[in-house]
Task: inverse folding
């Protein structure tokens, strides 16, 4: 079974269109969710769309909600939010062109 973002999570997403491909990146966060990074691959059309978890090595931004996320090729940026216990004012950057992926 393919990975799918939890419907119980609080999440934000950003849409990226690198060249001819079309992807949605989902960074889930908040007290009810993991901090997994999901990708919805729409290259084969919406009826053949597939979710996948983007493997990330090392430290992650951690669970959070109320954050901002933006894609500026080739970087995915996460800023601020709340961990559930405190507000945070940090910035995390992931280069989607360079594997293995790390924040």
Result:
């Amino acid at each position: 079974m393919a990975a799918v973002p939890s419907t119980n999570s609080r999440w934000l997403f950003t849409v990226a269109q690198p060249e001819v491909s079309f992807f949605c990146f989902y960074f889930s966060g908040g007290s009810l969710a993991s901090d997994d990074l999901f990708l919805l691959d729409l290259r084969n059309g919406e009826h053949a769309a597939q979710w996948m978890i983007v493997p990330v090595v090392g430290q992650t931004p951690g669970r959070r909600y109320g954050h901002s996320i933006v894609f500026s090729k080739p970087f995915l940026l996460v800023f601020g939010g709340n961990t559930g216990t405190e507000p945070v004012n940090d910035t995390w950057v992931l280069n989607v062109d360079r594997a293995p992926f790390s924040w």
Remarks:
- DSSP finds no helices and nine strands in the chain.
